[in-house]
Prior knowledge:
With 369 residues, the chain is mostly helical.
Amino acid sequence: MSAYIARRLLLMIPTLLGILFVSFVVVQFAPGGPVERVIAQLSGADTGGTSRISGGGDFAQRAPGQVGAGGDAINSKYRGAQGLDPDFIKKLEVQFGFDKPAPERFLLMVWNFARFDFGKSYFRDVNVLQLMKEKLPVSISLGLWLTLLTYLISIPLGIRKAVKDGTRFDTWTSAIIIVGYAIPGFLFAILLIILFAGGSFLNWFPLRGLTSDGWSQFPWYWKIIDYFWHITLPLVSMALGAFATMTLLTKNSFLDEIRKQYVMTARAKGCSETQVLYGHVFRNAMLIVVAGFPGAFVHAFISGSLLIETIFSLDGLGLLGFESVLNRDYPVVFGTLYIYALIGLVMNLISDLTYMWIDPRIDFAAREV
Length: 369
């Protein structure tokens, strides 16, 4: 087992390198960049994104004095740079690290990332790791609670649907689940806001953030109540679609096992339905459900929370990564990508180890990676 874990951990290294390399190459050919971003803001031509120049603030303040001779010399390299002093552009390149060739920049990035040194944000003047630590609790909260809630509800419901297959209960619950799956999460979030967050009807839940003002001064029990009060609507919005996938997956998995010969044998021996389901079927049927755990968590942690974070003004990693892509804030973009990839790889390893815990017949020691 230890040899298998070691091989999987070593395999993460080339996988992460490949992800970073492909992303780095794509970025080199992407239009725009941090230098052009600053130039566009100085010239008043920047109308997109949500960038906040603080790290480049000195250049912004000195811009009027840098407009003048020599601007035509650099207009072929950066759009909108006409009239800006070439020395000013070179200082921007040095500030953002673009004075070095691409291979050298990539190798330097890999070396720094191996030490979890992601540098500073271009436009926030904050260390990227510190920035991600500030946003991480929001995304972790959404991801963990969504995954836990989905499994706690979907697995018992899926088992019940398998046992009651073809009955009225199965038909009605399937209809509700499919309708819920068809409704986009962000649209359901807007509906919840209209109904329960002071939109047009009731004002039962807060509209933004995960805690109230002065949360740190609350008693411990009131902190817990306030936290769940804030997270209720975002969780419900995200969970609607996740229930459908996990419930149907659980139902189909149990149906496949219930129809097998060993289940009929167990029933013939006089085992109760509970003993058959949870003593014989559960272990085999849950393997495929466990396989979906990493994907469910990573989806909730990364992509599934982006629109929800935006709608409910939750300042998490999803919103941070999206804004960083718009602003060409490459240290934050690559830093969040690296963390996302690392989490995904670790969760896949945990999933494989969970297989063994559920079914000891699986032998990783004899398995080749």
